[in-house]
């Protein structure tokens, strides 16, 4: 059995919806157990949550993209992860990440680069989407990987949409495939 932990911050609920889709995809893999850890509005998680991250085979980071990077709440969590970093608690765990923003680009790649660097600081083994983009003339907005990301999962939710309206179904379907890929990879790397 592989243990997957998803640790994320969501400011308005859109990234939470994305995290739940990633969780559903990871949980669809036989033998995977998945924990969803929400970073609270003050940027904190509980001691039990830290223990869950230490025990996981894979950790998936998630944050909305605000002003070209992670939210300050996620950054506070990342800075607090220096304690497991010092002990190399997350070394050789599978790492992956996702983000959401209001615009199609929104500098989401900057956020994924930040999350990738966090994973590399922790000596993790990074997993991208493994999905080809929907980039032909026939592509539709709800196709798999329409946003076209490889290094991590991206979704787009219009700034005036509620979490019920965004991310769109295609982005959520992509999130499920991404979650499954991370759980499958964690099972392959499990000692």
Automatic annotation (TrEMBL):
<dbReference type="InterPro" id="IPR005025">
    <property type="entry name" value="FMN_Rdtase-like_dom"/>
</dbReference>
<dbReference type="Pfam" id="PF03358">
    <property type="entry name" value="FMN_red"/>
</dbReference>
<keyword id="KW-0285">Flavoprotein</keyword>
<dbReference type="InterPro" id="IPR029039">
    <property type="entry name" value="Flavoprotein-like_sf"/>
</dbReference>
<dbReference type="InterPro" id="IPR008254">
    <property type="entry name" value="Flavodoxin/NO_synth"/>
</dbReference>
<feature type="domain" description="Flavodoxin-like">
    <location>
        <begin position="4"/>
        <end position="155"/>
    </location>
</feature>
<keyword id="KW-0288">FMN</keyword>
<protein>
    <recommendedName>
        <fullName>Flavoprotein WrbA</fullName>
    </recommendedName>
</protein>
<dbReference type="InterPro" id="IPR001226">
    <property type="entry name" value="Flavodoxin_CS"/>
</dbReference>
């Amino acid at each position: 059995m592989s243990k997957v932990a998803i640790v994320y911050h969501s400011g308005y609920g859109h990234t939470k919806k994305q995290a739940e889709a990633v969780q559903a995809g990871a949980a669809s893999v036989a033998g995977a157990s998945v924990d969803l850890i929400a970073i609270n509005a003050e940027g904190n998680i509980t001691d039990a949550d830290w223990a869950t991250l230490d025990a996981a085979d894979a950790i998936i980071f998630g944050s909305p993209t605000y002003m070209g990077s992670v939210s300050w709440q996620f950054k506070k969590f990342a800075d607090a992860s220096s304690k497991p970093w010092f002990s190399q608690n997350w070394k050789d765990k599978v790492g992956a990440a996702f983000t959401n923003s209001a615009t199609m680009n929104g500098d989401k790649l900057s956020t994924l680069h930040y999350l990738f660097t966090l994973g590399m600081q922790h000596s993790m083994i990074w997993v991208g989407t493994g999905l080809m983009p929907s980039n032909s003339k026939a592509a539709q907005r709800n196709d798999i990987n329409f946003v076209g990301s490889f290094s991590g999962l991206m979704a787009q939710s219009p700034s005036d949409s509620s979490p019920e309206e965004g991310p769109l179904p295609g982005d959520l379907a992509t999130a499920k495939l991404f979650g499954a890929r991370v759980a499958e990879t964690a099972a392959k790397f499990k000692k």
